[in-house]
Design brief:
The protein is α/β, with parallel strands linked by helices and 230 residues long. The chain has eight helices and six strands; from the N terminus they run αβαβαβαβαβαβαα. It has a single domain, classed as Alpha-Beta Barrel (TIM Barrel), CATH 3.20.20. The site of one zinc ion (ZN) has 4 residues, from loops.
Length: 230
């Protein structure tokens, strides 16, 4: 099963390693693609998205690993999320994550709902004590709710899973890695998904279907990795 992870950071924002170093570890860990989703806000989106796009082109060239430019819209007021998301897409971001209402931070109330309603958003990152209304809006918009591997944000994973399942919103797992050691492995991903309260058959569904649905929605094609020994 190919490993997907749409939420990682580099030295383009507050990560500890440059994109090539992160991507090398992704390759070693069996990722199907590298996704660089550094933090942007209204002030930094114009500067950072072109850097992310260039870094992904360099990774694809150097490592022959598919590399997808993305962003995490962070500390943007709810009413500005749609504008920053549209701007990030115009500049070349193909996946848009929004830094949701995690209990590890002090985001503004209403942020989850604004992100869940926005057609340019793909993933509502670490959405904390997300409401049923926001999860229902995410289902309507096709926005994935994130189960996170980041210790600062992971305390509400069980709640996120429960509300997503009851409202029919799609789920996926991301690392939110700020350093290579925090990137996922297949074994770690399975542990985290089981630990979030999913049953084994639900884990398989989340791992297989969620990423493919997201990629298909944005028309992003990832070649199947060659089988080992081929
Ligand atoms: Zn975040
Ligand atoms: Zn993040």
């Amino acid at each position: 099963m190919a490993l997907f992870d749409f939420h990682t950071h580099t030295t383009i924002s507050d990560g500890a390693a440059d994109p090539l170093t992160m991507a090398r570890r992704c390759l070693a860990n069996g990722y199907a693609a590298y996704v660089c989703s550094d933090h942007v806000d209204a002030a930094t989106v114009d500067l950072r998205v072109p850097q992310i796009v260039a870094a992904c082109a360099e990774v694809a060239r150097a490592l022959a690993l598919p590399a997808i430019p993305a962003v995490e819209i962070t500390r943007v007021p709810p009413e500005a999320v749609a504008r920053v998301a549209a701007q990030a897409r115009r500049l070349g971001a193909r996946v848009v994550v929004v830094h949701g209402e995690t209990l590890g931070d002090h985001p503004q109330p209403g942020l989850n709902l604004a992100a869940a309603r926005c057609p340019d958003v793909d993933i509502l990152g670490h959405p904390g004590l997300i409401t049923a209304a926001a999860a229902a809006a995410a289902r309507e918009s096709g926005v994935h709710l994130e189960i996170t591997a980041a210790p600062l944000h992971a305390m509400t994973n069980g709640h996120v899973v429960r509300v997503a399942l009851s409202e029919g919103a799609p789920l996926l797992l991301d690392s939110d890695a700020h350093r290579p050691d925090s990137l996922l492995t297949a074994a770690r991903a399975e542990q985290l998904l089981l630990g979030s309260g999913l049953r084994p058959e639900q884990v398989e569904a989340v791992r297989a279907r969620a990423a493919l649905a997201l990629l298909a929605r944005r028309g992003i094609e990832i070649p199947e990795p060659a089988p080992a020994g081929a």
